[in-house]
Design goal:
heterodimer, A: 253 residues, globular, B: 272 residues, mainly alpha, MetI-like fold, 2 domains, 11 helices
Chain lengths: 253, 272
Amino acid sequence: MAGKDGNTLGTRAIQIGFLVAVGLVWWALAANRMVTPLFLPHPEAVWRAFARLVSGGQFWSAVGVTLTSIVQAYGIAVVCGLAVGYLVSRSRYSTRLFEPLIAACFAVPITLFFPIFILVFGIGPASKVAYGAVYGFFPVALNTIAGFSGVGAHYVKAARSMGASRAQMFRHVLLPAAFPVVVTGLRISFFICFASVLGGEAISSASGVGNNIAHAAELMEPARMFAWIVFVIVTAIILNMVVSHVESRGREH
Amino acid sequence: MSIADHSTMRPRAPARRIGAFFDGPGGIVRARLALIVVAILALEVYARLFANPTFFPPLTEVARSLFDTVLADPQIRGAVADAIWQITIAYGLSIAVGLGLGLAVGWTSFGRRATFPIVLLLYAIPQVVLLPLFVLVFGLGAGSKIAFGFSHGVFPILVNVVAGMRNVNQLYVRGAQSMGANRIDLFRHVIFPHMVPSFFAGLRLGMTMTLLGVILAELYVSTQGIGYFTKVFAETMDPAPLYAIILLLAAIAITFNEIVRIAERRFTRWQA
């Protein structure tokens, strides 16, 4: 629907203008010291801090710790979420029994339980992995249930009457019908794992990107803190664009 | 039950299986409750017999320390009351700004196409990396928690207001305008009724996110408020009050969610 949501020259100009304006306002405020450099350091200072970070050895080790935690948390969340979601969706009864319970758990902010993760798993990466995995489990499980239980009964009946085996039923009927919903759950879960691991590291940790941001804030080193923040935000936005591009390409096929 | 319950008065077939108790529309609720009871009992037995008591206290212990330690301590009570206030204020701000900005963004098609991608771009930022900055700017007190809760809560509301306005049939808008409706009439009688489902979906998600933002900031600031007490209980290896304060806050979070859901049911009833 290009007419309803598409971009024209005018809308693109406003979007680019917004980004340029944000950059200019940041520059102007920082250059004239209208905001204390503690809250808003000069972009050049941030750039220099970033260059120092990357050339130092700690940058990649912190990124490595965080990335490993995210991948582990996401892996656990996906495997458990798909397995639980698929099993629950197998009968109408178990769907109606378990789905509201899982949805109710997800409505409670799981962040509340973060101190328990620290208590049990310590302040190392394991607590962040467990926390991210638990948080990321829910969207995968809920969307897997929604996807598989939403497959039209007439498709299932038609396939069965044509003599489809269990494997054929799964491969040709259930999976294609459930796939788009499941993929949405996988996407949401990834960004939840991403934010959970970083948040957990910021709150209580000894290493990782989140810890580095919190540490820079405690030491009142705003340039280094902003360098990390901008790095994470740019990474997240690029990831987001890649994922939505892949998803929309997948939908077209 | 003073009124005779006719379903129990009906003679029952003697050979019904136990599973029948969990069948039917009421049965599913009974089954769900039974599952919760079983889970609580299993946790209790596990904690009493197998678990390490420094990590996993029995729920009965947790319940006792909820009354003996958590609710009896005026400082903890104060911290919890502060959190409730922070959530309320942050959520109120989220609704006001989310609705206002949403209307501004969604009012014209050009405005929406030009500015909505900017909103979505900002929404995609993992805000948790800004938490140390929020605390630096707004301080250790209520300010940073309200601000962080607001920054989480406002986006889902804003996005859903815009999405809801997009679904309003332009024919109705033009019809109302041709009958002389001004902007306020248009909003009150045409746009708002159409965006109610989407708006309330945003309010629900906005509440979840506001809770997340406030709690994240509460836990991050470990020198005062709830974060201080969770840190103390965790460090002194005193898990029962830690679990108690967490479960108390979870109950508060559920209450906030339920208030929004009740409001949603009330306002969307006419549609069903």
